[in-house]
Amino acid sequence: MQFSAAQIAMMINGKVEGNPEASVASFGKIEEAIEGQLAFLANPKYEEFLYTTKASIVIINDAQELKETVKATLIRVPDAYTAFATLLDKYQQIQTQQLSGIQQPAYIDATSKIGENVFIGAFAYIGEKAIVGSGVKIFPNAYVGNNVVIGDNSIIHPGVKIYHNCIIGKNVTIHAGTVIGGDGFGFAPQADGSFRKVPQIGNVIIEDNVEIGSNSTIDRATIGSTIIRSGAKLDNLLQIAHNVEVGSNSVIAAQSGISGSTKIGKNAMIGGQVGIVGHIQIADGTKINAQSGVSKSIKTPNTAVTGSPAYDYTAALRSQAIARKLPEMEKRLKELEQLVKDLTEKK
Length: 347
Prior knowledge:
Blueprint: E1 3-4, H1 5-12, E2 15-17, E3 23-24, E4 26-27, E5 37-41, E6 57-61, E7 73-77, H2 80-97, E8 101-102, E9 107-108, E10 113-114, E11 119-120, E12 125-126, E13 131-132, E14 137-138, E15 143-144, E16 149-150, E17 155-156, E18 161-162, E19 167-168, E20 173-174, E21 179-182, E22 187-189, E23 195-197, E24 203-206, E25 211-212, E26 217-219, E27 225-228, E28 233-234, E29 239-240, E30 245-246, E31 251-252, E32 257-258, E33 263-264, E34 269-270, E35 275-276, E36 281-282, E37 287-288, E38 293-294, E39 304-306, E40 311-312, H3 313-324, H4 326-346
Parallel strand pairs: 4-5, 5-6, 6-7, 8-11, 9-12, 10-13, 11-14, 12-15, 13-16, 14-17, 15-18, 16-19, 17-20, 18-21, 19-24, 20-25, 21-26, 24-27, 25-28, 26-29, 27-30, 28-31, 29-32, 30-33, 31-34, 32-35, 33-36, 34-37, 35-38, 37-39
Antiparallel strand pairs: 1-3, 2-7, 22-23, 39-40
């Protein structure tokens, strides 16, 4: 499928510089793109490739000044990165919209309700009284348990498992291999040293416009709900424990783990391999640096922390700067000690 520069500019509210009839059929990196591909420039470090790229069309920022002649047709927008993301999203939508119907073999319980224009792939399982909204795409080998609700236009990728009674909102994307609603890690210690399982009878609620990466696990609540609020973006390989709440528009990078009953505020940013203990509060807008260990509540909004145990990010940078100077400081201290000794002996 080909698009002209004029058509693309209309999609992203851009202005064309060059040939409006220039056309592309695929995407490429600005340093590697070939004729017939669309690229973008957002990072100044790649500006040199703007003048050598073979891409037919390049999206650039309005503020980008040209230092040399550019062969490609340009489309200027306020934010090239966001515009390029918009185009990729539209391209992906076109691809998924082509999928429709129910492939065989697939099991769909007679008591379930299936909306219009859905796609259900081969070997998918839809349980009793499940509700699948209109425009939903459920790829092969996905499991949708009893009483599960999936909102309109959500995408469930291959091998996703959604346990009974969980609720998935509209426009949610769950990538391959993720498990929604597995049992939380609840075991009561007994007098004889053994552990007795505590039944996990709650569910998971994922609100609208959430995206969850591959091979992540979001455990069902012991009682009540584990909740992922609207607009949250979760990476691959995450562990979200029972009764956790992730605030709206928060982002969590890969290999992080959040222990039970912790509440994360909205617009939080959590780096990769972060560990957060249970039963604490993380304030709105908190930024947690990669590989940090958070052991207590963060109550002040928009705080940045790092380290294990995590503490104020700016203070941590100062500490690191001082630590790098310790050998020099030790040398100066010894010199001062010698000077004091020499002065004392002269008396």
